[in-house]
Every structure is written in structure tokens, then in C-alpha cells.
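Chain and conformation:
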Amino acid sequence: MSQLQAIRSCTSATLCFHGAKREPYLRHDKLYCSKKLCSLQELGAKSSELCGHAIVHHIGNHIQASNNKAIQAVLASEKEAEISDAAKGRALRGKLNKVVLAYSGGLDTSVIVPWLRENYGCDVVCFTADVGQGAKEMEGLEEKAKASGACQLVFMKESTCWGPQWPVLLLQRPWLMLLKKLELMPVSHGCTGKGNDQVRFELTFFALNPELNVVAPWREWEIRGREDAVEYAKKHNVPVPVTKKSIYSRDRNLWHLSHEGDILEDPANEPKKDMYMMTVDPEDAPDQPEYVEIGIVSGLPVSVNGKDLSPASLLSKLNEIGGKHGIGRVDMVENRLVGMKSRGVYETPGGTIIFAAARELESLTLDRETMQVKDSLALKYAELVYAGRWFDPLRESMDAFMEKITATTTGSVTLKLYKGSVSVAGLKSPYSLYRQDISSFESGQIYDQADAAGFIRLYGLPMRVRAMLEKGL
């Protein structure tokens, strides 16, 4: 569970799955990657494939597709216009036939649709995946895409995005599974030129399909901020969920909800109470604490209060419980990869509870040296994930280490939730290294307290020698 520590260091992180096994995903009637993209195993379940069907929403039509027909619908009878040698290696500006846009329906991606049509003369295919952002955020996406000028919306539903194993952080949405099928079709994203996400998206492009061309409007257009984007949306009759009075930049998935921009750009400003959406104000939380028991097997959470749950259901449940008690609010100034500092406020109730549970159980099942090495690697792991280097061999090697040492981290943790705080109330594990018959202040036969005298003399010998030298002894 050390990978979970990366939660606190990653902004706008989106989810996928990680597993150690690397068999190819090739099964009938499912959406999978080709052999060239087998590195996407790191996004998949340990020994299972991504399940479910893709859905294609054509404007005015709805198609349930299988056998990669969803992707083929995007590609059917469409080829990218030829690009001159002078245009290669830089942001494209000219005539393209079709561009696939990572689409959320928010302000940035909504205005990108008409901008791409105007500046590249292309059809825009919007791609959206259910990564736990909630039904409200996905409501009416097809209509929004149509109103913005998209030719179609490809939607990957929850059963396709979420596998049966525990989700670990990744920095791109599952639409990257389309990269191989897209061949050289240009792709576009709404990441700002000042942020980390642009690096994360494009490093993944390099790793999975280095020949893809990327259109990054925030690095090209004349729009200089979110107020300009709102004006552009009004001019083009694009429906957007923000106004100049409510202009926070938000990103939501199953792990968290982030808030940036508006008054948060000044670190001296306290976040407004009505900004939060997943968690109640700790002052308004229940006056009585709630106890929750997390079951963990080999370092992975599997149950809540004795009920086995799938990873997505478990995290959703803990988001609900933790949010009710004001758990998981983080207000931080971070160092962006591009060099500047930025301020963001995050709500991650479920992640905070899981992190606390895993950490506490490891205190029972891991020895001191192992925990120290693990903690040092966790920091490096977080740095790699934050910087978008998910496909770095070092990250894969650390995963193997973490999987090995947490094999015995099995048991249950009871946590007390009260007005924004999480504290441990009880720990149990069949692999516990804690021995009451050794640790008790009462007499025991395994540990003889008299033995400590010799240990202290030997352990402190270097200090005694130095002191003797200083005193001339």
C-alpha cells in the first residue's frame, strides 16, 4: 500500500489499476490493447482483463458496441490528413480530418471543441471514461458535446474502466487504451501549459505510441485564463458549468476532488465554506464518533465493517462515511514539475481512511528496517508518479518490492472518525510481530531484562571511545 502514499503528492490524479502479472489482454468480445501496448498491463488488474463493453454515442444515435467496434466507429473511413515535415515535432496548426479529445464536459474541454474546429478544420471525437467522477458530472455529456460541435462522443462506462483488483494511481484517463487503435490520429487534451498534467499525458503518449501527434490548445491559443475561456464559450454558445462568479478549476474521480483557481490563488485566503463538495465542515460533523473496521489482505483493503466489497465500491463507501465526518481535507502549496508553486485544496475522505488503515497495520506486520526502506522508496515512488513517469522501469521494480514485503500485511484495523480526525482504535493480524509476552512490563521468559546491560555497553561503545578521547583517557 505504499503506492497509496502518492495520493498526497499527486494533483488531478485519475485512476486505473495495477497488477504484477503481465499476460496479454486478448479475449473475445472485450475492449483490450494490442501486443504493442502490453505495457498497459500496469494499468490493468493483476490477472484479469478489463471487463465490459465500450459504448459509442453518435450524435443522435446510441450504439452498444463490442469486438472493438466502438474504436472502429471512430476510425471508420477516416484517415488523418498528411502533415508536412516542417509541422512534425511541434504543435499542429493547419488542416486535420479528425482529432480525438479527452473530454470531461468542463470549461476547458468544452471550449476546445469549437476551437479545434475553427483552427484545424477537423471533426472532433470526444472521449470520456467513468473514473468515479459521479453521475452528476457525466449527466448530459452527449448533449454538451453536440452543443459544443463534436461529431460524436465515445464513452467508456464503469464496468470497462474498473477491474476487480485494487486501483492504484495513474495519471491519465483510460482513454489511453485507444492509442494503438488510433494509429496516427491526432489527440488533444485540455491541460494547461503551466501545469503537471500536460507532462503526464504526453510522457504516456511517448511511452505507448511515440508517433502520435498532440494538439495542446492551452499552449497555442490566445485564451489566457478561465475568464477568457468563459467569454469564448459565450461567444460560441457553448454550455459550461462555471461563471465568472464561480470559476474554480475542479477535477473529480473516485479518489478525490481537487479545487484550484479563483481565491485559492492567493495563499492568504481561507477556502470558502461552500466550496467543498465531498466533505462536511468538521465543525458541522456529527458530535458522536463513528468506528469503521477495514479488512486488509496482503496490503490491499477488501472489506468495510466485515462486508467484502469490490475496490470501487469500497472506496465509494469510505468516501461516503469519511465525508460525513469531514475527513480528508488537504490545503497545500506544492511545487509543480514545471518549476512554479501552486496552491490546491483536495478532498479525499476514502483515501485518507485507507492510508491510515494500511499504515497502522504495517506497524504490526513489518520490522523496523523494512519499514524504513519502504518509506524511503515510497517518497521516490510518489515523485515518479507525480512527474508522470508511470512507465519508468524503476516504478515497476518498486512495485515488485512492495508486493513482496506486504504479502503478510493481512488483518483488520478499527479506526475512529470524529470531526475531521482519523485515529486508530484497534489492530489485529495473524502475522503480527507484536508479542505481548515479550513487550509486557510483567516478567517474561523470552526477554531477560538483565541482558540489556551488555547490549547497551556494546551499542554505546563508539560514544564511550569518543568521550574517552576528548577527556584524554
The chain is about 30% helix and 20% strand.
